[in-house]
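Revision sheet: structure tokens.
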Amino acid sequence: MAITEEIDSGGVALLTMEHPPVNALTIHDAFHLADLLDGYRRNGDVRVVILTAVGRGFCAGVDIKEMQALDANEGILEANRSCFELFRAVYECAVPVIAAVNDFCLGTGIGIAGNADIILAAEKAVFGLPEVDNGALGAATHLSRLVPQHRARHMLYTAQPAPAGELVGYGSVLKVTSDDALLPEAREVAETIAAKRPRVMRAAKASMNGIDQVDVRKSYRFEQGFTFELNLLGEGDRARDAFLERSAPGSTDTSESPVSESPVSESKDD
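Predicted:
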């Protein structure tokens, strides 16, 4: 995946993900994004972060081809570790993180957006956790930061996504925009934040984290335990192998939408 970083003179850091076809995250991608976000603790020039993507999808999840290519349980373990570090880094970033969600936001994308401070979304964006269709669990912690408890349960159990407009009603998505207006709107919010006193803003971020009712790190780690259990039982491998079979050249399965298919990607191998 190409992950670009641009820091403007006003202190706005723009992180852009781009990995066709659906912006799936490799293990390296997730660790790299975590390192960039962690680095802003030591970079006083950065006052706010915008995290976005270009192309199809904001994030369709992890790269299943990479996971299945690794030996034994290395794939699931390293994917779990890298996602944990990325979600933690978004949450613990020293400055506010704005997620500008350009398209479908699934699986790992929910972990990113759910731990962001502010979310804006394009009109076509949807949010979902198709994990149960893939023999896994995870990121319900972060989904519960986006939708009410019973709606989160419905979305998890059915693997059905919710449109961005619905999340505006819950107050988790600040605004829904056209595709073209998404980044300008995100920049407007970012510039308002960047204009504040930097030390005060960093303290405000830390104080908001400190009064959260749920420890998102422990909660997500608890979820990951069930993912690994299911993997040991073979559920994860069976689901991932079935996904690769469906997405292989010549497959008779004509479904192309990761919204209906999986939080993991149709991504080609790196």
